[in-house]
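Q: What residues go here?
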């Protein structure tokens, strides 16, 4: 009987009958935390319906919390202006501070970013992985609310199978930023950002991420927008290996004047 109730609940979420930001959703457990609010239990990424639920939420313009191969992230449709506005409101972040996008494949990366100067060999060596590649944004990425002051865009392809499957099914780029208030530390468990839950369309629980606190450094951000040169924008997970990889492909550390 419990299994039947659980499946009905998941179907209701998928078709929009449940408001995940209130106590109307009644899972097996409710948590009275975050200032006394009753918060619904996150949806396990191992649940058979979780990927479809995530995609439906993104299509509706909602912001969801999702695990990556580094930290938990907040995600929404990158080409939906109102979804991006909501993402920034949740983060408490200036809309002049850029966010990255996440896609499923290198073909997608080449569609949404200008990458003619980057070889397939280099991209296959780097991706998927804990790296955000910054390149010029393509004309297809035309949301005026997405990094309005920037001509570049950071693009991720993660190793996490759940977000990979969501990206494949959604087919559009997903705006992605860490699941925490601006200037707060990155999160490795969903309960570390439960104060954000009431503002989210859904929270997907992939368990504890990583084996150490070093995981909180998040992805390394590397600027590859200038042919033959690289610049590290953020030193994150696996930065040494990433530098070795790009230098193996004869891409050199840039002087300031090269960018």
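A:
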């Amino acid at each position: 009987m419990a299994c039947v109730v659980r499946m009905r609940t998941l179907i209701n979420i998928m078709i929009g009958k449940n408001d995940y930001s209130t106590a109307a959703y009644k899972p097996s457990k409710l948590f009275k935390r975050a200032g006394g609010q009753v918060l619904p239990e996150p949806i396990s990424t191992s649940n058979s319906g979780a990927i479809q639920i995530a995609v439906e939420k993104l299509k509706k313009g909602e912001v969801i919390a999702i695990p990556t191969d580094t930290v938990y992230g907040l995600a929404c449709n990158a080409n939906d202006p109102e979804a991006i506005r909501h993402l920034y409101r949740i983060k408490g972040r200036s809309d002049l501070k850029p966010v990255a996008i996440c896609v499923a494949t290198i073909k997608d990366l080449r569609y949404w970013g200008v990458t003619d100067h980057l070889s397939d060999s280099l991209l296959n060596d780097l991706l998927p992985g804990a790296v955000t590649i910054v390149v010029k944004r393509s004309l297809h990425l035309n949301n005026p609310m997405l990094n309005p002051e920037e001509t570049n865009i950071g693009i991720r392809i993660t190793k996490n199978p759940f977000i990979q499957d969501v990206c494949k099914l959604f087919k559009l780029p997903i705006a992605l930023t860490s699941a925490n208030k601006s200037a707060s530390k990155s999160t490795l468990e969903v309960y570390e950002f439960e104060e954000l839950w009431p503002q989210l369309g859904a929270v997907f629980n992939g368990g504890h991420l990583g084996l150490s606190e070093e995981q909180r450094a998040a992805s390394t951000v590397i600027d590859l927008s200038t042919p033959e040169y690289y610049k590290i924008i953020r030193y994150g997970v696996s930065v040494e290996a990433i530098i070795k990889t790009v230098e193996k492909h004869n891409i050199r550390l840039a002087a300031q004047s090269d960018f």
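A: Context that may help when evaluating the design: The CA atoms of residues 55 and 169 lie 7 Å apart. Residues 1-30 have pLDDT under 50 and may be disordered.
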